[in-house]
Automatic annotation (TrEMBL):
Database matches in InterPro entries: Sec3-PIP2_bind
A molecular-function term among this protein's GO annotations: phosphatidylinositol-4,5-bisphosphate binding
Residue ranges constituting the Exocyst complex component Sec3 PIP2-binding N-terminal domain according to the UniProt record: 32-123
UniProt cross-references to SMART domains, sorted A to Z: Sec3-PIP2_bind (SM01313)
UniProt cross-references to Gene3D superfamilies, sorted A to Z: 2.30.29.90
Native source organism of the sequence: Trichinella pseudospiralis
Protein origin, superkingdom: Eukaryota
GO biological process, one term: Golgi to plasma membrane transport
Lineage, uppermost ranks: Eukaryota, Metazoa, Ecdysozoa, Nematoda, Enoplea
Record protein name field: Exocyst complex component 1
Amino acid sequence: MDLSVKQFIQREVFEEIDERIITFISVFSSSKKKKRSFLCVTISYFHPVTLRLHELRMSDKGKQLTMLHSWLFKEIKLIDGINPRKSIPELEITTDKTYRWEICNVNEKESFIRQMWKVCHRHLASHKPEFVNISIPVEEMECRISQESESFVGTTSNLDNKEEFHTISPLEENDFKNLLSKYSMSIADAQSFSDKLHQQLSILDKASISYLKYFIIAI
């Protein structure tokens, strides 16, 4: 990618619309005239972050750039590298229709596609274009999976901290054992224990009611 050309495109086209060019590639149209143009990936300077793909064409005199097409990346349905095993100078992008270009320098094709893949997965939460017939940038994919895994582990760790199990104190444990021994019961005899506990609570409730009646009469 020619840095001077990138700076020229940035200055002439994207500065005034508050976008920064991330990468570009020189292509020929698929028409018979084979006119040369530039595919440019841009990102907005301000929030919300907006990603776009533009097609620019240089005038015949080579002094002015004209915007032929402009797409939001979330509007792009498919980015097709045509052949993932062989470097061929062709690229297809599908929005509401399919556009096909011949790339001027085939050695720049993979880098351009990688940059598109990278910005889409970094800045688009949904509505990402599907990338097909390309050499998948494995290192970026592994990095993304690793980040998502770390996020998941962090979330589950927070849940564990919120739901910590608190054991009973030695005093509470001793009181519980004394209560069981009073009725000559084992822990397995849960139903009998529950029935007797309800009986004790009932007796306490009756005693409380009797005391309350006595207190009211006394007043």
